[in-house]
Amino acid sequence: MALSVAARPYDFALDPAKAALVVIDMQRDFIEPGGFGGVLGNDVSRLTAIVPTVAALIDVFRTNGLLVVHTREAHKPDLSDCPPAKRLRGRPGLRIGDEGAMGRILIAGEPGNQILPELAPIAGELVIDKPGKGMFWATGLHETLSARGIRQLVFAGVTTEVCVQTSMREANDRGYECLLIEDATESYFPEFKAAAIEMIVAQGGIVGWSTPLEALKATFA
Ligand code: TIU
């Protein structure tokens, strides 16, 4: 039976039997100083601030027995899954695969690539390493979610206008109904976060819905 979540552009009919939470890229690379986000010149403190909200959101899904999916932006150590067009975008010495303050930047298995301990996955949850900004490219995730009957995705994580929005758009095109939890996502650029949310809900929810965590909690209360 569907639960009605107050959201923009209109209420979201959440079906717990078909819904999963996707936590995008809450890894040290983006959130701690010295990682990929930092070497790109960003102030990471904005992102650190949402960690308690993301933890509370994960708790809602765990408490209600719903699937939680965690993604990491991660490349293989030999960089065979990193196109030169992506790797060569950054400054020499600070590119994907280069040695940074938390190991090789955006490389699977390195310290910087780990999900923050406060948000660590638990048994039964999915952890998806994705070589793209979007979560479906080269991951097999659509097949995995389809096999479990998942048709609705609730989104959190970083950054709103890059990996979160890209993943939401990919999901929208694959037929998922998508709900963004707007205080459980953040950008290095507040104006980009605000614009991304407006782009998502505009035109009758052209990409999906958006709501604060409190509205979702009220639905499950
Ligand atoms: N740079 C930036 O805003 N984001 C990324 O590179 N990846 C994600 O958003 N995860």
From TrEMBL:
Its EC number is 3.5.1.84. It holds the Pfam family Isochorismatase. It comes from Kaistia defluvii. Keywords: Hydrolase. The keyword Transmembrane does not apply. It comes from the Bacteria. Coiled coil: none annotated. This is Nicotinamidase-related amidase. Residues 19-207 form the Isochorismatase-like domain. One of its GO terms (molecular function) is biuret amidohydrolase activity. InterPro entries: Isochorismatase-like_dom, Isochorismatase-like_hydrls, Isochorismatase-like_sf.
